Amino acid sequence: MKRFTTALVAALTCIATHAQNPNFHIYLCFGQSNMEGNAAIEPQDRQNVPSRFKMMAAVNMNSMGRTKGNWYTATPPLCRENTGLTPVDYFGRTMCEQQPEEISVGVINIALGGCSIKMFDEDEIGTYLPTCADWLKGYAAQYNNHPYNELITLAKRAQRTGVIKGILLHQGCTDNMQSWWPAEVKKLYDRILADLNLSAEEVPLLVGELGSQAMGGVCHGHNAACIAKLPGIIKHCYVISSKDCPIASDGLHFTAEGYRMMGRRYAAAMLQFLADNDLNAQFCASELKASATSMSLTPGASQEITLYCTDNQGKTHNVTRRCTFIADNPDLVSADGVKLKAGNTTGETQVHISFTDSEGNTVSTDVAVSIKIFPLEQGSVNPSIKGSGTFTAKTKQIQTSDGGLAGWTYPAGIDLSAYNYLVVKLRLASTSKPAICIYDSTNPNASHYEYKMNTSPSAVIDLKAVASETGAPDLTKVKMIGFTTNGSRAIYLSDIFLSMDGETPSAILTISNPQHKVGNIYNLQGVQLAVPQKGLNIIDGRKVLVK
User: Fold this and answer.
1) Which of 46, 159, 422, 476 is most buried, most CB within 10 Å of its CB?
2) Which CATH class is domain 382-516?
């Protein structure tokens, strides 16, 4: 009896140690060089990687202290030592950003540059591998000469602690436009599902396009000839567009920015699948959480928000399209599908969100929304309006590519004609030749006003002088304000604001239609003013504080 009890305790301990967490979402990734990662990893790609974004090492990576079969924070490279940036990097980051904090994302990436899809086919590898070049045989040797078996073995190990939610494929250059390729992909997808006891209704296949013709992709024909056929033979197959994704000079591989774009697009497709699957799910609601508890927007801008409901079994469901949204100030923000949309005035408000399950149980959460002209929170600065760049809210650091543009956009246009100055202050002078740009268009290549800061740590731009210049942007309908640099180093913002005196910030007076002007302005004594003064002003019947 004692031996039986000991064995039972040991078995229960083992089960507890490897309990499957429904909120640990695992994705299997495979293919050839674009999935392996070909572009050089840049500093921004190693920064701000969420700790809940994990990678399981598919091979030993000694220089990084990674052992095959173990989980690590997903700092690149994710495939093997000396591989580059891959779409998986920004797929995982985006999945973490768009899902609540209790959801972790794990990836397993097995990819071999230059290989045919036959490398993953149990029925084909025996005759295919001997025909490969020695360097490709070397890659295969790292996966025990059977990448598919390694993928399944690692996936089963991962299933002890998490749930496989999707499969990502990027392959095709070696098999460019081969008519048998779509059927081979379906065969492989079906085999993965069977070997891992997965359901096609719950685990989709996401397939990335090769470089587009417009961007110079030499294998672009594969997109229409083969990849486009997959949704017709696989029910839940999503094709990830490569439109506008920059590619390297070899015409085969994406640039680092191209991989970032592809990764975000893989994530968007997966998030859409998860949302569609949850749309009609019936469960008992326990708690409601938003993908962000606070949000900063520019006037007229919108940002996606995702609402997740935890059921009484601990599983999460995307209920965004089943929620009710009520803002304390509906003039400041409204719900637009899966987005919160800012109005055309600045301010702060709370958005109350609720979800009611089929049994009548209601759960709720609040999101604080602020509308500002120059928000400096993460996600509110677009670092890649033109080119590629990064923004770090903690340090107010902006890095652009050479000639790139980073800053703020105003879809409805904002009226700056009532202000005298735009003031910019940097923490440090920069040698990256920063310039401040003002547009009355959302096209970063359109004509605009540019103020070159050179090596000065501050700028006071006379808006009245700007308005009087020939060909100057229309300051009554400004659409973008941002920074451009030569990309050599980052700039560190201290502050940016509109001002009447060139020194102190002024409250935002009007943000409205281009035709709208500042109306009647009075001080508290009832005297009409030409322009607002410091302190409280009565403008169009409303109190406005000018600091």
Assistant:
1) 422
2) mainly beta
